[in-house]
Amino acid sequence: MDIEQASPFIQLRRQLHQIPEPGFNEHKTQQLILEYLDTLPKDRLYIRTWKTGVLAKIPGNRPQKCIGYRADMDGLPIREQTSCPFPSIHDGYMHACGHDMHMAIALGILTHFVHHRIDDDLVFIFQPAEEGPGGALPMLRSNALREWKPDVIFALHVAPEYPVGTIAIRPGLLFANTSELFIDLYGTGGHAARPHLANDMVIACTQLVQQLQTIVSRNIDPLDATILTIGKMEAGTKQNIIADHARIEGTIRTTSKKSMELIQTRIESLLKGIEAGFNCKTAIDWGCSYCQVYNDAKWTKSFTDFITHQTPYQLIECRESMAGEDFGYFLNEIPGFMFWLGVDTPYGLHHPQLDPSEEAIPVAISSMAKYIAQMGTRKKS
Ligand SMILES: CC(=O)N[C@@H](CCC[C@H](N)C(=O)O)C(=O)O
């Protein structure tokens, strides 16, 4: 597929880019996808919605399995700073993680199979809320998806650091286990001049942050990559008032489930120590957690063999990423893989200037359409 043939999907990507919406609020996005699907021949397409997500099934000629393809839908609370001529019209929101590209590519692959039917069934999953609170797990548990559950599943993620025409993947772990972290500390406020009558949560909180940083350095096997980042700290109301409340927000990322359990247990122990040491109360909320993205070895090999021998694209065996992706929940139950698609932009994911190259759209549509066609078509006996 060349850039001209991909033009309808580039237009769709631009329309999607303009309307980024937060997780489970992707109403306009859902509407746009449904309106596009409505333009396709109805006899080959069954459509369902689940919350703000969309499911589209293309029945096969003589199905033996169901092949799934997933695209995520939500935008991020980031004010766009690109110079692209089709910027976000939702102030303070941006498709800064490439989900507009993911959806347009999925629509391109879907359209190909509406016109070129294969033996196996196909299900396209447009999933809300990847950036949080996580749409994959509840979608997997929904009746809508349970009845159309694929036997094998694929997805891609744009990769700013690779040139267009590059596909990067690895068998096994691709994305980390993640957990959010929200901790509140409650003490006694008071006058800055009478510290002996108050119980200062600024002090307790800063001590806690220091202690949290010892978990990775002193409790986790150094060969087991792990991150504990506190990205936000809030306390107090005024310079001469002792703070009765402090809050920290962070994220944990691990390459093993065991380390995630260990970190969470250690945090609970440290909080007990802070409560005893500072005579305060604490509350912890783990927010949303994502299970790792673990690529199936057999399917990954079949895809890498295909890319190497049957496409002009460059294949890279990449390292694991410490980012999270709730596609991991799909791969926990269904074999398949996720890969990185080079989109060649100097700014990383979640950056206000992220501007993926649209030339990657035909690369992805053509490679996935050809790969899916091969695996979903049996030789005539
Ligand atoms: C691809 C990507 O950037 N994913 C996000 C997933 C968010 C997980 C959750 N909100 C957390 O912070 O733990 C990422 O930040 O890796």
UniProtKB/TrEMBL annotation:
Listed EC numbers: 3.5.1.47
Keywords: Amino-acid biosynthesis, Diaminopimelate biosynthesis, Hydrolase, Lysine biosynthesis, Manganese, Metal-binding
Gene Ontology MF, one: N-acetyldiaminopimelate deacetylase activity
A GO biological process held by the record: lysine biosynthetic process via diaminopimelate
Peptidase M20 dimerisation domain boundaries: 183-272
Cofactor: Mn(2+)
Top-level taxonomic group: Bacteria
Pathway listed: Amino-acid biosynthesis; L-lysine biosynthesis via DAP pathway; LL-2,6-diaminopimelate from (S)-tetrahydrodipicolinate (acetylase route): step 3/3
Entries under SUPFAM superfamilies matching the protein: Bacterial exopeptidase dimerisation domain (SSF55031), Zn-dependent exopeptidases (SSF53187)
Positions with a binding annotation for Mn(2+): C97, H99, E131, H157, H350
Provenance organism: Thermoactinomyces mirandus
Active-site residues annotated for this sequence: D72, E131
Pfam family, one: Peptidase_M20
InterPro entries in alphabetical order: AcetylDAP_deacetylase, Amidohydrolase, Bact_exopeptidase_dim_dom, Peptidase_M20, Peptidase_M20_dimer
UniProt similarity note: Belongs to the peptidase M20A family. N-acetyldiaminopimelate deacetylase subfamily.
Catalytic activity of the protein: N-acetyl-(2S,6S)-2,6-diaminopimelate + H2O = (2S,6S)-2,6-diaminopimelate + acetate
Note describing how the cofactor binds: The Mn(2+) ion enhances activity.
Name under which the protein is recorded: N-acetyldiaminopimelate deacetylase
Purpose: Catalyzes the conversion of N-acetyl-diaminopimelate to diaminopimelate and acetate.
